[in-house]
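Please decode residue identities from the backbone states below.
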């Protein structure tokens, strides 16, 4: 459709999305029919580029080939891995230092992290629709027109979009799935005296903001809790924690029944136990958890077990309660002003709201394209879980009474998202195949 300067499109008829919506509507009445739609932006499929869209049952019984791409953030790696495992199929994992992508393309690419989003969009353009791109989080999902499905926390995107799927809780694997794949290490940990207190350290706990005095204070609380409950302390630290900082935490806890990779031993093939298997084993064996650090997906993973979860204090701010530089404050002010203008509803001469155009339309386009990224309207996950009673603050040694009265965990969003992706891939519902992870 033709577009006038500073005005929205004159219509959506005969666009690629218009044709796709008609095919999808017709496919609802014929779910057993496999269909394919090939569209182009111009008159020449070869020179103007083309895009392929398919629907209906997936041909053959071959499981999908899945790639995951993240920026190395532990939360992003955890969420992409959970979704890939829920879908099943052969999975290859890629990060910031991975080589340039080349054919053959996968059936599905799951991307998380703003710094890797552009690589995912280039792959989608090069694949011409032969690869479904699912973006997790606002950083990778915006602009939404560049992906096939945007999975974003509710409130992080202002405007509705047909490819937008909003969630209220990070994507985490179900406790039953994690327990079934936890291996022999979980059985060894379950033999330790209970209750088993699993202390999970986030990557930020290795930063300079955590002074030795703060670490020792948390360690004394954990040690006193184990003494009161008559249990064992199991330490769960991520791979990003520096050895010297990890040693500070180890000394703070006193005697540990399990210290992570050094106590995990080797698997049946003689290889060192992987961090993923250690995590599954600790999730399965823990009777209560203490989370130190602000990683949202890690906290959601603990809450999904349905067992008591306590959260330590947040990392102290360096130099007091600083809110950032003047440049950050200016950026927030500009973003808030653009959002306010994009949401404005000026009246016309008759006193009714006129169609969005001019400066309002430009501001809305700046937000939609990702040039301006508004702050999310939702409260942080930690605050929401504390308000709902799903987690409790770890501000004193625990007693037996502190382990009771927790509500059931919030509903899992993983299966809802997996069902959307399965439908787009033409897979049957309820696929529960474990993911194989070849080196990639």
């Amino acid at each position: 459709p033709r577009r006038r300067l500073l005005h929205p499109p004159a219509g959506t008829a005969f666009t690629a999305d218009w044709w796709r919506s008609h095919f999808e509507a017709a496919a609802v009445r014929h779910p057993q029919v496999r269909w394919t739609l090939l569209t182009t932006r111009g008159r020449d499929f070869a020179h103007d580029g083309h895009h392929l869209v398919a629907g209906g049952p997936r041909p053959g019984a071959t499981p999908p080939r899945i790639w995951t791409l993240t920026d190395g953030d532990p939360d992003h790696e955890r969420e992409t891995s959970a979704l890939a495992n829920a879908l099943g199929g052969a999975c290859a994992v890629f990060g910031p230092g991975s080589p340039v992508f080349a054919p053959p393309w996968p059936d599905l690419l799951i991307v998380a992290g703003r710094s890797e989003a552009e690589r995912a969009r280039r792959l989608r353009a090069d694949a011409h629709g032969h690869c479904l791109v699912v973006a997790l989080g606002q950083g990778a999902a915006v602009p939404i027109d560049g992906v096939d499905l945007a999975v974003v926390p509710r409130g992080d995107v202002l405007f509705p979009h047909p490819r937008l799927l909003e969630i209220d809780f990070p994507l985490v694997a179900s406790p039953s799935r994690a327990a079934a794949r936890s291996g022999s290490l979980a059985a060894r940990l379950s033999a330790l005296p209970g209750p088993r207190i699993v202390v999970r350290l986030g990557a930020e706990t290795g930063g300079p903001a955590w002074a030795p005095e703060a670490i020792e204070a948390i360690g004394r609380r954990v040690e006193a809790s184990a003494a009161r409950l008559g249990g064992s302390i199991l330490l769960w630290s991520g791979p990003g924690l520096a050895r010297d900082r990890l040693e500070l935490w180890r000394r703070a806890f006193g005697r540990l029944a399990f210290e992570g990779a050094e106590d995990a031993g080797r698997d049946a093939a003689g290889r060192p136990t992987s961090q993923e298997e250690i995590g599954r084993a600790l999730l399965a064996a823990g009777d209560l958890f203490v989370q130190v650090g602000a990683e949202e997906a890690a906290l959601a993973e603990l809450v999904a077990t349905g067992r008591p979860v306590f959260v330590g204090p947040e990392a102290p701010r360096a130099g007091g309660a600083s809110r950032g530089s003047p440049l950050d404050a200016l950026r927030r002010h500009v973003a808030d002003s653009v959002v306010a203008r994009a949401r404005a509803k000026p009246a016309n001469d008759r006193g009714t709201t006129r169609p969005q155009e001019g400066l309002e339309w430009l501001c809305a386009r700046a937000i939609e394209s990702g040039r301006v990224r508004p702050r999310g309207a939702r409260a942080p996950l930690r605050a929401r879980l504390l308000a709902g009673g799903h987690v409790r603050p770890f501000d004193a040694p625990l007693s037996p009474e502190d382990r009771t009265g927790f509500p059931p965990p919030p509903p899992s969003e993983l299966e809802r998202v997996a069902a959307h992706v399965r439908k787009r891939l033409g897979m049957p519902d309820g696929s529960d195949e474990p993911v194989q992870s070849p080196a990639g």
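Observation: The longest helix spans residues 212-229.
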